[in-house]
Amino acid sequence: MKSTQLEAGYEPLPTDDPLSDYPFMMTPKQVAEAGIKPITTLMSDRYEGKGIPFVKIGRAVRYRKDDVLSYLDAHRFTSTREARMAEVNR
Questions:
Q1: Nearest to 70 by CA among 35, 36, 23
Q2: According to the per-residue pLDDT averaged within each range, which of 2-6, 20-24, 42-46 is highest?
Q3: Contact indicator for 62, 48 with CB cutoff of 8 Å
Q4: Is 32 exposed, middle or buried (0-12, 13-18, 19+ CB in 10 A)?
Q5: Is the distance from CB of 77 to CB of 86 less than 8 angstroms?
């Protein structure tokens, strides 16, 4: 059996990016709908200069999908201890 074949009854795990249904530039609403952060937290993070990097063109705020994925990767942990240590070092 090839490693790409699956046993009967099992669905493949997604291998591409979890935001593949979203455009290259995401609105705050799309970031919130993807379950990353609520819109109000995104607004607060922008004001405080932290969180996901954003692009502002005129009055429009957008998040590059690559920046959102990078943010998620930077906040991925294997234990709560590791997450606590990351918070202390930020």
A1: 36
A2: 42-46
A3: no
A4: middle
A5: yes
Element (H, E) at 43: helix 39-48
Among 78, 81, 23, 31, which residue's Cα sits nearest to residue 41? Answer: 31
* pLDDT at 90 (0 to 100): 67
Q: In b/e form, how buried is each residue of 41-78, taking b as 16+ CB within 10 angstroms?
A: ebeeebeeeebbebeeeeeebbbebebbeebeeeeeee
What's the whole-number mean pLDDT along residues 26-53? 95
The token duo for 11 is 């669905």
pLDDT value, residue 88 = 75
